Amino acid sequence: MYSLRSYWVPAFFNDEPMVGLIRTTSRSESSNFYFNHFVHKGDTLSEFYLCFHSAIEKQRNNKGLLNHKDDLMPIPKNKKKIEKDAAEIYTKTMFYKIQEQITASCGDIVMEDMSVVDGVKSLKLKDPFLKNKIFEVNFNLSTHDIDCSCNLYTRVGYLCSHSFLCLSLSGISFIPRQYVNNRWLKRAEERFSTLVLSDVAELNPEEDAKRKKTRDCWFEFQGCISDASGDIEHIDFIHKSLNVVRKHIKNSSNLGDSAPKHNSIGDFIGLQVVDEVTILPPNQSNNKGCRKRIIGAAEKSLGGKKRHKRKCRKCNEFAFHDSRNCTGDS
Which residue range(s) make up the domain with 201? Predict the structure, then answer.
């Protein structure tokens, strides 16, 4: 059974969303293993702080290297616009996986049947790479919703070769954004840069344009500071100009008062901060191991020691009494 796991495990989880679920524990253990290289059990507080700082610096350095690699455009295999679209939005590691599916869609997949009913295009495809199995793909021409019977997107989180073939036959040159997971995008961190906490893949064109303009403003500001190069006159000019711009924005009648940060977060999660806290954290308890039995009052009065029988001089028997409180015959 274990040797055949590659056959029955995918079939068992065929309809379950497994995107990132299998790697959750391994990622947690990987973080613990990573920090164990820097932090040790006997470290003092100052040593722990220095070691933790070194671990974070190395993590930031690795992140910078990965971001640099993602900025480089990968080599395309197919002259398709949808492959270029994937290269622009996905990280390089994820792009290579999607590139395999796009390349497979250009291969020997045979279309057995095609029909269009009520704006939904249905295809029956025979895949020679999967033992000539027949897969059915349904594509909504208006909403660009696509569904394949192989359920690859449900299991791993990206479209299959059958879906890419259907998109190509329908004249779609980009990946539908409802099938782009934010966790694998180059801009995945931008969703945490402002209070607009929606996924990058779910942004409408207006919000996307606003993000781009905000990013351009930051680049212009950083460029001005860099061009000043420590010149005090240039820095004073930038400071005065920023004050003028800020006063103009505050005095503008088109801009209303911005809502507090906690109100924006409350609107996002659907709850508001209450004035009085009635729900408190539970008392700390130690549930490790097993507890001792409950000791009664009589046993506590004896100091936890077991009583031993002693010989009564009146009845000459070993009991728990003596001659003063003996009830036996004399």
Answer: 187-227
Say if residue 165 is in the same domain as residue 136: yes
The total number of residues shown for the chain amounts to 330
Query: What value does the mean pLDDT take over residues 214-228?
Result: 75
Q: Which residues pair with 122 in a beta bridge?
A: 115, 138
Same domain, 49 and 142: no
Question: Tokens standing for 70?
Answer: 């993602």
Does this model's pTM top 0.85?
no
| Residue 243 burial by Cβ neighbours in a 10 Å radius (0-12, 13-18, 19+) | exposed
Residues 63, 94: one domain? no
Let me know if residue 65 belongs to a domain: yes
Domain count, the chain: 3
**Range 111-140 average pLDDT:** 91
Confirm whether 285 is domain-assigned. no
Q: Which of 74, 80, 68 is nearest to 92 (CA)?
A: 74
Q: Answer yes or no: are the C-beta atoms of 156 and 10 closer than 8 Å.
A: no
Backbone angle region of 288, left / alpha / beta, with phi > 0 → left and psi within -120 to 50 → alpha: beta
Asked if residue 294 is part of any domain, the answer here is no
CA distance 258 to 59: 36
pLDDT digits (tens, 9 = 90+) for 276-293: 888 888 887 766 666 677
Tokens of 239: 């400071």
Residue with tokens 């010989």: 311
Which amino acid is present at 321?
Answer: H
